[in-house]
Write a sequence for this structure.
């Protein structure tokens, strides 16, 4: 560290290095004072000591004020012929050294170049002004002029090299920061994805279990058979919840690729099973489909399934109604998934509608109000992630509505996949019933949703 630039305190090593440079320049000045015009050598006169002292005294200031020091050392060099000394590159060594520092530390390259050129021209012009010019003097003029120029070019090269290395280090630092930022962003996205998956799994299964337990408690004394059936369904629901949680947590604990293939992500093909689980919880749902169903991309398929699941879960928890409506509208470039209910939004337990002769279940739950959840946030994030949009809000005629518009690939892109795909059991490719395409079909469940 030789250039503080702000008048700050220098370390001890910098002062030692500066002293060595100044001592070397002083020795060069005295060596130049030994030379004579007749190619003889003699002891340096007092004028040589004067030039050396004046020139070298200002050298330590060349880092703070390079232009001023260059002007001072050049002026000292111009006095050399006036004092009867031979003007050589040795005696103007302080000016050469300052030319290097000026090119290295000047604010602008153009300003440094002008200063070095002016100093070289002034030193070279001092010879014909104060001496008789011979061919030897002409060569000496060229040498005296070249040394400051060479020092300036060297300083310019060193400056560019330092700037290049600084830029490389800065790019490396920014690249490292970008990698860290990208890693943090990916971790945050993965945490959000895991949170959504766990929320969908836990909220759905626990809501169904709560509804089934409520039905069992309601019929415990009056209808033991109905209670036993509700408890059996509760056992199945909790077992499914444990399996789903075990599979999800197992994937999170894996350090590498799983040895066995993972279970495919759920989609609309599993919609009948989803509706059946809500039927066991006492929620009746009608499904209506418009347009021609076709296979969905995996991300869109999972998003549509999760939106229906979460909306139905919210109906079961919050809507205070025993029925809901699901509507799938297929268009050329999108599919619209709508879930609606006619509930009042009260926190009521689901009605017990497990059979045609079943009496209604409890109409209200004594559970205290819970803080708002993240169901609507998760649905909206899922829809946005696949390029769609989601609307959720209360209906003017009562109840709550969740509507998602999800993009679809063009019919041309999916023609080969849908061509020749047979239907089984009256289902379409997305799992909706075949007769639902022309009218309402009671499937035993579906969903609407309210803000979680």
């Amino acid at each position: 560290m030789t250039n503080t630039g702000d008048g700050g305190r220098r370390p001890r090593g910098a002062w030692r290095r500066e002293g060595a440079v100044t001592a070397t320049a002083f020795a060069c000045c005295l060596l130049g004072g030994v030379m004579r015009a007749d190619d003889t050598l003699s002891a340096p006169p007092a004028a040589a000591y004067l030039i050396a002292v004046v020139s070298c005294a200002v050298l330590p200031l060349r880092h703070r004020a390079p232009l001023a020091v260059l002007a001072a050392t050049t002026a000292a060099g111009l006095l050399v012929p006036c004092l009867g000394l031979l003007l050589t590159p040795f005696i103007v060594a302080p000016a050469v050294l300052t030319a290097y520092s000026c090119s290295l530390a000047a604010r602008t390259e153009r300003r440094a170049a002008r200063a070095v050129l002016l100093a070289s021209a002034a030193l070279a012009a001092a010879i014909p002004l104060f001496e008789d010019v011979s061919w030897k003097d002409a060569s000496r003029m060229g040498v005296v002029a070249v040394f400051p120029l060479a020092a300036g070019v060297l300083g310019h090269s060193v400056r560019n090299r330092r700037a290049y290395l600084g830029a490389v280090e800065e790019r490396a630092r920014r690249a490292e920061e970008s990698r860290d930022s990208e890693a943090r962003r990916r971790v945050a996205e993965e945490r959000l994805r895991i949170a959504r998956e766990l929320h969908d799994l836990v909220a759905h299964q626990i809501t169904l279990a709560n509804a089934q337990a409520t039905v069992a408690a309601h019929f415990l004394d009056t209808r033991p058979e109905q209670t036993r059936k509700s408890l059996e369904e509760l056992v199945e629901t909790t077992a499914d919840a444990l399996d789903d949680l075990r599979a999800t947590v197992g994937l999170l604990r894996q350090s590498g690729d799983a040895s066995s293939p993972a279970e495919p992500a759920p989609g609309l093909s599993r919609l009948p099973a989803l509706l059946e689980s809500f039927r066991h919880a006492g929620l009746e749902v009608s499904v209506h489909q418009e347009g021609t169903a076709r296979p969905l991309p995996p991300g869109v398929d999972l998003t549509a399934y999760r939106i229906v699941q979460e909306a139905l879960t919210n109906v079961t928890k919050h809507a205070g109604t025993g029925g809901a409506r699901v509507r799938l509208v297929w268009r050329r470039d999108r599919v619209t998934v709508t879930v609606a209910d006619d509930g009042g939004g009260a926190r009521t337990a689901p009605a017990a509608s497990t059979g045609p002769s079943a009496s209604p279940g409890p109409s209200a739950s004594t559970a205290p109000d819970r803080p708002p959840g993240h169901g609507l946030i998760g649905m909206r994030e899922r829809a946005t992630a696949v390029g769609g949009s989601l609307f959720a809000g209360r209906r003017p005629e009562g109840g709550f509505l969740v509507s998602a518009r999800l993009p679809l690939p063009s019919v041309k892109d999916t023609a080969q996949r849908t061509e020749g795909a047979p239907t089984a059991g009256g289902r379409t490719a997305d799992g909706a019933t075949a007769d639902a395409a022309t009218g309402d079909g009671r499937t035993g469940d579906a969903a609407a949703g309210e803000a979680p």
